[in-house]
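Lab meeting, item 3. Inverse folding demo.
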């Protein structure tokens, strides 16, 4: 978490699409720590990265074990794999704004919160 002080602007804004935007480095650290608390073995793999001007787009895969509360859901001890896309805006060598979208439905299905539709034969 300490590295975030070096790479993010203090007025950093996160547009995550899961609720209100997160404004400020302090609140972003809190949001990030919730992910690491929920999935203490979380691992992110960069699948693709494209940079142009002040923007960087990353397609990523995440794996982890649900060991702590996540989005109000108690731990299930289930291993999950998810994917997402992040577009970051960087100014003066620091992240100032990010747009993140990930497969929240697929993640909730893996955690057993949302039923998985049955496949037709």
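The presenter then showed the designed sequence:
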């Amino acid at each position: 978490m300490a590295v975030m002080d070096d790479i993010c602007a203090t007025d950093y804004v996160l547009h995550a699409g899961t609720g209100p935007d997160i404004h400020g480095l302090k609140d972003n650290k809190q949001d990030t720590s919730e992910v690491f608390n929920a999935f203490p073995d979380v691992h992110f793999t960069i699948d693709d990265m494209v940079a142009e001007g002040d923007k960087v787009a990353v397609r990523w895969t995440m794996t982890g074990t649900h060991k702590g509360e996540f989005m109000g859901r108690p731990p299930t001890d289930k291993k999950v794999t998810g994917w997402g896309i992040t577009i970051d805006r960087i100014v003066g060598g620091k992240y100032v704004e990010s747009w993140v979208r990930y497969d929240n439905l697929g993640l909730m299905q893996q955690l057993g919160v949302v039923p998985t539709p049955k496949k037709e034969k």
